[in-house]
Amino acid sequence: MDDSAKILILFAHPRFEKSRVNRALLDRIEEVPGVTVRDLYERYPDFNIDAALEQEALAAHPIIVWHYPFYMYGAPALLKQWMDIVLENGWAHGRGGEALKGKIFFNALTTGGTREGYAAGGYNRFTIRELLVPFEQTAALCQMVYLPPFAVQGTYLLTEAQLTRHAALYRTLLTRLAQGNFDVEAIRRFDFLNDWLNHNPGGSKP
After folding, report:
1. Which is deepest, 52, 107, 116, 129, by most CB within 10 Å?
2. Is 157 part of any domain?
3. Which residue stretches of the chain have pLDDT < 50?
4. CA 41, 44, 47 angle in degrees (round to 5)?
């Protein structure tokens, strides 16, 4: 890893070849200065994760993104396996485990259900933020700075124009984070990173 490394995207999609939304989101992402993408299903098709190699990648980046489709209210199996193997006691948490302390973390999600469907009175009964509590607690355990998610929802309903806008917003998000053009406390006032970007499109230095 070189000194320009800023953001590590850990991408986990077991059927990436069939996902037009995630293909659009990842298109040209690696052209954003400071962004590294690791396709976990491509790297570990046998689920035999190299913990030391993944820890090296984590240590080299101050911002970590878990990017995945929100399947049955959680992450795909390989990402859960990755968490169990890589976030070792004594390294990421527990006695002497401070390797991730102070690093920024957020989820980037795609959901078939709409934003309205993820609400107390909606089809899914809970908000996305509530369903992501295990990830928030994992970040807390590892002493990471937890940000609200970036979410593209209602994926089956998106027009090509809408999808293009979501992809552009994701690239804007990664560019601003890589440049340090954000304020953590300002971001935390929003439920989604999408909302923060739309509310503050020009950005401001912290």
Report:
1. 107
2. yes
3. 1, 205-206
4. 100
Range of the domain at 68: 7-199
Cα gap 81→77, rounded to integer Å: 6
Amino acid occupying residue 83:
M
Q: Give the number of domains in the chain.
A: 1
With vertex at residue 114, the alpha carbon angle to CA 110 and CA 117, rounded to the nearest 5 degrees, is: 125
Give me 36's structure tokens.
């590294």
Task: Provide the CATH number for the domain around residue 62.
Answer: 3.40.50.360
Cβ-Cβ contacts under 8 Å for 175 (sequence gap 6 or more): 32, 33, 181
Compute the distance between CA of residue 121 and CA of residue 107 in angstroms, rounded to an integer: 24
Q: Which residue has the tokens 């690696």?
A: 30
Which of helix, strand or coil describes residue 161? helix
pLDDT digits (tens, 9 = 90+) for 2-59: 557 799 999 999 987 778 899 999 998 988 999 999 999 999 999 999 999 999 999 9
Q: Does residue 1 form part of some domain? A: no
Q: Can you tell me the distance from the alpha carbon of 40 to that of 181, in angstroms, rounded to the nearest whole number?
A: 28
Amino acid at 49: I
Which letter does DSSP use for residue 8 in this model? E
pTM: 0.92
How far is 34 from 113, CA to CA, in rounded Å? 32
Indicate whether 12 belongs to any domain.
yes
47 torsion bin: left (phi>0), alpha (psi -120 to 50), beta (else): left
